[in-house]
Amino acid sequence: xxxxxxxxxxHKTALGAALACVAVLGTVATATGAQAATASEHTASxxxxxxxxxxxxxxxxxxxxxxxxxxxxxxxxxxxxxxAGNLDWKEWGTKKAVATGEITGMWCLETCQDKPLKGTLTxxxxxxxxxxxxxxxxxxxxAGGNGSYDVxxxxxxxxxxxx
Length: 163
Hints:
The protein has 163 residues and is an alpha+beta fold. It is built from three helices and eight strands; from the N terminus they run H-H-E-E-E-E-E-H-E-E-E. The strands form two sheets. Strands 3-4-5-6-7-8 form a six-stranded antiparallel β-sheet, covered by helices on one side. Strands 1-2 form a two-stranded antiparallel sheet. Residues 10-25, 27-32 and 34-45 have low confidence and may be disordered.
């Protein structure tokens, strides 16, 4: 009986975490839609060539499954647990892209949903996927350090979805 209770508890915890993730993604998607015009004006200053990689962005319901190839997005889903918004791109080159912005995640919902954490995002390791060059890794550094957040997305270079 104890094992069944434990399994049910784990399933409920996983379901709760998934619902929290949907709430975070919905919040970021709403903010992104409201700032779309501003984002296109802002990214005009970042130099690009035909060889400059894209990033596969899974923000919004219409792009959640397959992603959308973008350069210098205003907001970006990094993993199922972490998102970045209000991104100010300092560099978008052929080898890496660097931005500062606001970080939220399931791991900090109680503290960062209303007041996102400040951080620096670096995209790297471009690869060709389905004929399109895309960044395949990211590194995320919170301003002032990770503090009490012991989460994989903050521990060095991480895999970034490429499809």
